[in-house]
Inverse folding.
């Protein structure tokens, strides 16, 4: 019986482990190796260059510009998205009178907010490209109809506005999902806690600060990890929407775009692999720090 049990476990786990090694671990290992070579993507041989590609990254002004843009997005996109998501979810559940009743029609609002999740990022980028069009776009058209012609801009052609315009699209495309996520988290909070806060005379902000937010903090940490990963990527939106892409003057350059350009346009697959490895470790570091922070807070509360 005992040997039969081990044979069953081996038969169930070994195929999955083999598939994981072939299709997940093997590509990672290949990328790490290629980052130490000068492979062009088509040559039969790849010459070992050691850490040369990583040294070049430190001296590549365009790559450093991309790192700076990704760092800005890493801060702005998660904070704004989580802030809006928490506000809307709280209003739908706590915005009405009488504790946790919320506003009327909150279920319909959740459906409307979730609509952007039904579209791919490429489709969203195309649609917002039309919205930002300086001549026929919806945004400038709305401003002109309100008599605010002085506020019209070439949103994606201005170095000072292009990155903000891209981040606005990322926030718009993501916030609906997190409204639903935070709404589900708030639904799981016992009703008695809100009633107790109401009896103690707590207002909306006090209830959110002392009851709602502490009990959805774990969901906030998870949201920050996912949004941070999206901010470190942002390739699809930048590739489709921006001038260049990555312009103007590198204002919207991101690491994923630099990687794509070096690999598929310049034939520098070794150098592009070094960028991919750098992005991998940046993403891994973000996830570890966010999850460790959440674990530390849970231990303190315990």
């Amino acid at each position: 019986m005992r040997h039969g049990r081990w044979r069953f476990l081996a038969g169930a786990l070994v195929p999955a482990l083999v598939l994981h090694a072939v299709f997940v671990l093997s590509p990672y290992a290949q990328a790490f190796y290629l980052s130490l070579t000068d492979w062009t993507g088509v040559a039969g041989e790849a010459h070992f260059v050691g850490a040369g590609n990583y040294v070049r990254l430190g001296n590549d002004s365009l790559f450093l510009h991309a790192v700076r843009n990704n760092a800005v997005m890493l801060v702005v996109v998660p904070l704004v998205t989580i802030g809006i998501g928490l506000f809307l979810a709280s209003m739908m559940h706590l915005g009405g009178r009488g504790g946790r009743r919320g506003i009327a029609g909150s279920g319909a609002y959740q459906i409307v907010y979730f609509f952007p999740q039904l579209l791919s990022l490429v489709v969203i980028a195309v649609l917002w490209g039309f919205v930002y069009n300086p001549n026929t776009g919806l945004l400038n058209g709305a401003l002109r109809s309100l008599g605010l012609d002085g506020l019209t801009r070439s949103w994606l052609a201005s170095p000072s506005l292009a990155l903000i315009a891209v981040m606005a699209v990322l926030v718009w495309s993501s916030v609906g999902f997190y409204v639903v996520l935070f709404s589900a988290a708030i639904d799981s909070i016992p009703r008695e806690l809100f009633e107790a806060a109401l009896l103690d005379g707590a207002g909306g902000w006090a209830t959110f600060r002392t009851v709602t937010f502490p009990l959805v903090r774990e969901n906030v940490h998870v949201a920050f990890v996912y949004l941070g990963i999206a901010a470190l990527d942002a390739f699809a939106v930048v590739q489709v929407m921006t001038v260049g892409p990555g312009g103007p003057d590198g204002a919207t350059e991101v690491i994923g775009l630099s990687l794509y350009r070096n690999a598929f346009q310049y034939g520098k697959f070794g150098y592009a692999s070094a960028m991919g490895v750098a992005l991998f470790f940046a993403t891994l570091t973000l996830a570890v720090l966010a999850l460790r922070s959440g674990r530390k807070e849970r231990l303190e509360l315990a």
